[in-house]
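Q:
My hope is that you can spare some time for a protein that puzzles me. I hope you can help me see how the letters and the tokens relate. Thank you; the sequence and its tokens follow:
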Amino acid sequence: MVDKTIKAAFLFPGQGAQYPGMALDFLKSSKAAADLFALASDAMGRDMEALLRNSDAETLKRSDIAQPTVTLANLCAAAFLKERGLTPACAAGHSLGEYAALVSAGVVSPGDCLKLVVARGKAMQATVEKIAKQSGGRDGGASADADSAPGMAAVLGMAPEQVEALVKSLGIADLYAANFNSLKQVVISGTAAALAAAQDKFKEAGAKRVLRLQVAGPFHSPFMAEAADAFGPALESVSFQDPALPLFSNVSGKAVSSGAEAKELALKQITSPVRWIAEESAIAALGIEACLETGPGTVLQGLWRDSGNEAPVFAAGKLEEIEALFN
């Protein structure tokens, strides 16, 4: 049970957290959620309720579908929490989740946020399809051959600084440290050949496992430079305000000082590593009393627990989870 006056961090999940039917529980119970669905439908150019109700998991994995739908679900969860009387003391999001955090911090409006993630998703999907085609994949979506195309792999059981140092010292072309998720997990991006070569090297250096991830592309690496270029004009068209509460950046792992900085970091984020461990430490330093995973899934709860920070973390991605917080 959570007191509504608690000093809470809202943590927003990113792409990969999606599932069919998410956020529909908020739609019938929250005026704010209904308004967000209308904004998202307008930004997407299609009925978001029908999309979430009728799409299968494979369809939702596409970047151009996952990014607006996950962001909508994140925003609905945050809006429902606000309707129940709980507002964030600070906000952060993992990768795509950072856009909902921008809204919570008052940096961008919900409507502009949804327009941005539609543009971001399209740009990243186009880049993924181009990469997959060049690598012999089928369509560049989640169904592309993940073993032959560039992608990502999780390195388990090795210190983040050791992973970063190895990536630099191994001299393997097209290999990058992408997500510094926890003291137990770092994700690397690269070509299929680079990931295969790195697997044995990391195991020799002490990694417990190196697992190829079933994702559509080598995100948070220089491979996504074309997506960043394509997304730039959409980003420039939106006004960014100074944060009204502490907001943390994936790129720096630190608090964002201004709207101008937030906009600059939003573009860099597409090709830069996610420094989630540093963000968690910065959040804990604020004296946060609880963290809420404000959106679908449970990944961020696990990462927070792995961080060793003392504040409890709670699920807040479904209506029933949020209701349970206050009962």
About this structure: Residues 138-144 have pLDDT under 50 and may be disordered.
